[in-house]
Amino acid sequence: MDGVILTPLKQIYNPKGDIFHAMKKSDSGYDGFGEAYFSTIHKGDIKGWKKHTKMTLNLIVCLGEIRFVVYDDLKDEFFSVKLSHQNYQRLTIKNGLWMAFEGLGEDNMLLNLANLEHNPSESISVNIDEIKYNF
User: Fold this and answer.
1) Domains of the chain, start order
2) Which of 12, 61, 80, 90 is 20 to 30 A off residue 102, Cα-Cα?
């Protein structure tokens, strides 16, 4: 899907504790830095739909398993991926696309490395039932 990049990430295993890469400024999808934050979602819950008008998201699941669904309303096209420790990748979502996500594991947490600081007037949100997708 245009505006979506899925990047495999390096994991370095160490008997005293592992290292999980997230993003370097030389990576595809890097569009500057505005803020980083963690978000949790409970098993079976769905957050969304949200469309950013300027912000680029770089989403990494650091705990549990989360299904992300991206919707391009101009092309009526969906993209879906489950990210977890076993499928450790970074999902980059450019502005102008709708996004929702569902908690699949018992405990779920994501990291977003956004190119802009949060501004509530920069995004549009609609109820989950306004975009038809079978989670």
Assistant:
1) 4-130 (2.60.120.10)
2) 12
